[in-house]
Amino acid sequence: MRILVHDYAGHPFQVQLSRALARRGHDVLHTYCGSLPNTAHGIMHRLAEDPPAFDVEAVRLPETLDKYRYVRRWRQEVDYGRRLTGVVVRFRPDVVLSGNTPLDAQARLLAACRRRGTRFVFWVQDLLGEAAHRVLRRKLPLAGDLVGRYYVRLEGRLLRRSDAAVVITDDFVPLLTRRGVPADRLHVIENWAPLEKTPVRPKDNAWSRAHGLAGRRVLLYSGNLGMKHDPALLVRLARHFRDTPDVRVVVVSEGLGADWLREQQAAHGLDNLLLFGFQPFERLPDVLGAADVLLALLEPDAGVFSVPSKVLTYLCAARPVLLAVPPENLAARIVAREEAGRVVAPGDAGAFVAAAETLLADGDLRARLGRNARAYAERTFDLERITDAFERVLST
Predict the structure, then answer these.
(1) Are 121 and 164 in contact (CB under 8 A)?
(2) Residue 226: pLDDT band by 50, 70, 90 thresholds?
(3) Which of 9, 17, 271, 304 is most solvent-facing, going by the fewest CB within 10 Å?
(4) Is the dihedral of CA 60, 50, 101, 256 positive or negative?
């Protein structure tokens, strides 16, 4: 098959899938948005070992996407959809697999596939319509509610028109079937992390030494961080441990949340709060290896429509995970079920700090939870099995 894989965000595991499909003899073009600000990408260039039938292409806008001015962002996303349509016309795929894509752009991509008789598989990473509705009605109570409802309807319409949909959790299935998506078009394939690209690294490594962390106890957050993630919990951690000389709270991120943390760092004199921009993907194992505990945050009302993929990468690192996420979220259920860390309710700063205290105080506990995390990743993130599942969906 000629397969166009489009992952708007440029995450590591999606491009890993594209490489795996190409190794099986398919012609694969992997595309992503090259105009997103403050985004950590996977390996988005050809490698010497890549098969000839694999290629990567960034779809670029004239200017960086403006995430915080809604009208301008909408226009840019529409323009992005037009540019993505041009890739379909040029590459002439048999099937398109598209995920993480703004719904206005996804609509244009699907329409282009319909005109050309190309099969379209909607990769549902997040319920974007539901997320937009919840965010917009908070910010603009009347107009936001109307616009949000439009996106809920648009997402449902796109899913009904798709030849198939891959959803990352069983939790999405009841909601989508209620919206009229035929159950036989829904395929559950949970997300994963590139296990072989995320080896377990010692705490004393090149990155931790370069930043003075090898001899410290480190609570580390890595990944996207918006205000919706409640970065105040990270400030609370830093303030709690400010008089504990060997503890550092490390944040590897960019954007609004990181900017706000920088302001708080200066305002409260938090020398133990260390902020770094996104690191190259190749350096990520050492970054995670520097941690004693890995942190993830999710807003209370995102429990069903979003699953933080960073947690899956964390599991590969053989470190305990401390989550402040809704308990019904798939990531929370995995960590709790596999005894790979601790889960507290979002917004419960007291429980978050107490769990961090417990984990930092008990090296044996951290080691046990970390072993459980890595064991789950090794047992579950089987790329051949995952590729089999996608191949079945793409070829039917």
Answers:
(1) yes
(2) confident
(3) 271
(4) negative
